[in-house]
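COURSE: Structural Biology Practicum
ASSIGNMENT: Worksheet 4, Part C
STUDENT ID: 0417
INSTRUCTIONS: Below are two proteins. For each, the amino acid sequence is given first, followed by its structure token string. Answer the questions at the end about the second protein only.

PROTEIN I
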Amino acid sequence: MEPQSNIDGWVTLQHLRTNLFIASWMLILLAAGISVGVPGSGGLAVAAPLGIVGSIMLVWAISMKEEPQGLTDEEISNWTPESDPLPPGAGGSVMYRVDTTLDTPIRTSILCGACGHVEWVEGKKPASYTCTGCDLQLWEEEE
């Protein structure tokens, strides 16, 4: 687990809820093992605080609400595929990538695998497309 630094200087931890679950159960199991394995009041003096802290951590982890961090509308609208050439496909065919937005405005990005050129088209995937970067026909759908 590596801390991530935010813009405002605070450090955020990834997967805090999961780590609290693991640590709390480990403390509870360690306390149970010590209380059974070490005879007398010495074992109980060590096991009781460990068990109490583990129980508090478990309640804390259960009460946390960890939601996945989604993308903002601005990040979604500014997204573009990486403009890197793709490896050749089966039999030496040219690979291409087509991404269409689901929300309005509907736009389609086309990445040519041969030259890495990315072009945006308004609307859905066109029936045929020739790359403007290398003049290679990527597909032509038959009706």
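PROTEIN II
(use this one for the questions)
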Amino acid sequence: MTRRFKLAAAAIAAILATAPACQAQNAAPAAATQDAAFQQLDSSMHALVDQGRLPGVITYVSKGGKALHYDIYGKSDLTTGAPLKADTIFRIYSQTKPVTGVALMMLYEEGKWGLDDPITKFLPELANLTVFKSVGPDGKMVTEPAKRPATMRELMSHQAGFAYGLQVDNPVDKAYRDSGLLGSPTPEAFLKTLAAIPLMGQPGEQWKYSVAVDLQGLIVERLSGKKLGAFMQERIFSPLGMVDTGFWVPAEKQGRLASLYLINPADKKVVPAQGFMVLDVSKPPAVESGGGGLVSTVADYARFSQMLLNGGELGGKRLLKAQTVELMRENHLTAASLAKQPLGPGVGFGLDFATVMDPAKAGTPVGKGSYSWGGAAGTWFWIDPANDLFVLGMVQVLGRPDSDPRLDRLSAAGVYPAIKAP
């Protein structure tokens, strides 16, 4: 799979039980299914659970609109021994980003914005930004004016110049952390704080994973006149039947929320997560984060994935035009950005998705044009139009180190031989 930039590692270095049987337009099966062809996939995932490196894992494979494989293994909570279940709710962190991208592209189809529009058309608070150049003798950042505002295309492809607070030794990232940007109490406070921090580079000159999708969420709110969650509920979740996806978990569902873990560097086993990056979803958030705030289930995200694989439609409900989905999964990086991006050879970036331009160079069995992203707690998915396939995985472990097996790669290694098996 793609060399997805790992948010958690850089920062801190389900199918419904009552779902109907699998149908071509309903990506979710009613119960877990195993197939001998997928033994490699199951064995590799189960081994990580048995070794204490994952509390539990769900994998789901759909091809041609039909569920080929669905496996649940391990625990939702290691302390209580509660098992992982079909309706377990997961914090999906940055796997929120594709959902926000779809929301914004709905407004694109309505003519409310264009890819070459400056972001200041919708976020005037971000006019007259500065750009980091160096650190002066006094230890302060030396800056220069931004040559122009970033465009919407650059915002959606992480070329706008913003950062995320991830790099420990970078002064711009440090300013993100020190300012408490990601804990801003209101959208207005978020924008005010962000405007005071220099960009990492001039707009359009480099790929830099960033708060860009949080800004996209604010643009959705301003263009629609609705809170991001309300817009998503009305335009995405309700039409697709995503009944357990949102920015918080109501009291009656909190017993289904998976516990969150992180890796103990000493023995690479999971321990309960505390403090930094532990997303509190027990109540409505002050700011609904388009970049990382959603919770979801395998069933819900499978429906979202199938909608995209179908070219923007599921069960007779069309969310996007097929050409809009194509636009999202095309590479939008400039040659300069492509040469310096950290995603790996053969990989580009579309509108809120990583996209495989050359599978051979990327060292992956996925088809050309496959697109993907994942979340800080280890969730992953990819959509492979060339093989009419999508794969989805759910775990809840922050900060899995680069030395650990990449779950997307492990699953790709198990999926493609299986789908080609006689």
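ANSWER KEY EXCERPT:
Q1: The first helix runs from residue 7 to 12.
Q2: Confidence is low (pLDDT under 50) at residues 1-26.
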